[in-house]
Amino acid sequence: MPIRNMKPLATLVTIFLASLAGASGVAAQQKSAADGIAEYRKMLEDGNPAELFEAKGEELWKKRRGPKNASLEQCDLGKGPGKVKGAFVELPRYFADTGKVQDLESRLLTCMESLQGISAAQTAKTPFGKGEQANIEGLVAYISSESRGMKFALPQSHPQEKTSYEVGKRAFFYRAGPYDFSCASCHGADGKRIRLQDLPNLTGNPGDGVGFAAWPAYRVSSGELWSMQRRLNDCFRQQRFPYPGYASDVTVALSVFMGVNAKGAESIAPGLKR
Fold first, then answer.
1. Looking at residue 212, what DSSP letter applies?
2. Does the pLDDT value for residue 18 go beyond 60?
3. Which tens digits make up the pLDDT trace of 187-202?
4. CB 108 within 8 A of CB 75
5. 225 by DSSP, 3-state: which?
6. Which helix (H) or strand (E) is 272 found in, with range?
């Protein structure tokens, strides 16, 4: 009788040990999947299609266009008129001429309108990947590539830069919508993933070339170059929020929050994404 009563217990122990082994196997598979994605990206790095967008952007930077038949070579991105190298890793930042904190895309809207006569309002209404929006994505690729390997150091000396950081922080943690989502739902803690994709924790510095430091990036799945504005737009879509306006205060503020948190991270932009 005592021996017979031990059988259920032995069975439970066997099931428990098997479940542990299975869990270990799943963890190993997940790790190998993440490693596989990293290897895939490494294989494509030398032939990143973003280089084509970089070349287009450099041409657009120097080309005379618009009603004023002018180039963007006098555009001030924060380093002085026409200076590109190192500008990207210090954006968004405050600009005295507009009295606003601007990211790269919103600053390009300002320069295109003031220097070339290309309507900022009309460009902002244009769908991603079309017309002047496609041109901006090329410009973003070129300008970001000129700071590749440099470390992010967004300024926080101006009161509006500090305010923008706080607004971005609140927006990052704001939960709403039909799924009660926030940016932090996916990017507010370590060890999160979606499908086979590791999700970086953007409340701090996740490391070189990760999170904020990897955008803009060429997305293999769509065959397009995505700017940070486009990436944030897609995040709002996944949260089932209304789309934000292009270069709106909230998207710029979110970039300030993530960019300041990424201080010291090395930029690999334009990066490569699945």
1. G
2. no
3. 988 888 776 678 888 9
4. yes
5. strand
6. strand 271-273
- Which residues are the active-site residues? 235
Can you tell me whether residue 192 is helix, strand or coil?
strand
pTM of the model: 0.83
Q: What are the sequence ranges of the domains in the chain?
A: 1-46, 50-273
Q: Tally DSSP H helices, then E strands, for the chain.
A: 9, 7
Beta bridge partners of 90: none
Partner residues linked to 81 by β-bridges: 76
d(CA 26, CA 248) in angstroms, rounded, equals: 42
User: Cβ neighbours of residue 202 under 8 Å, at least 6 residues apart?
Assistant: 172, 183, 187, 188, 211, 212, 258, 261, 262
Q: Which residue is it, tokens 């607004």?
A: 167
CA 185 vs CA 11, 30, 207, 233, 257: distances in Å: 39, 20, 20, 16, 16
SS3 at position 167 = helix
Please provide the size of the chain in residues: 274
Q: Contact 104/77 with Cβ under 8 angstroms?
A: yes
Burial of 5 (C-beta count, 10 Å sphere; 0-12/13-18/19+): exposed
Q: pLDDT of 8-17, one tens digit each?
A: 434 434 444 4
Which CATH code, of 3.40.50.150, 3.40.50.720, 1.10.760.10, 1.10.8.60, is assigned to 50-273? 1.10.760.10
Q: Which residues contact 111 (CB under 8 A, 6 or more apart)?
A: 72, 75, 76
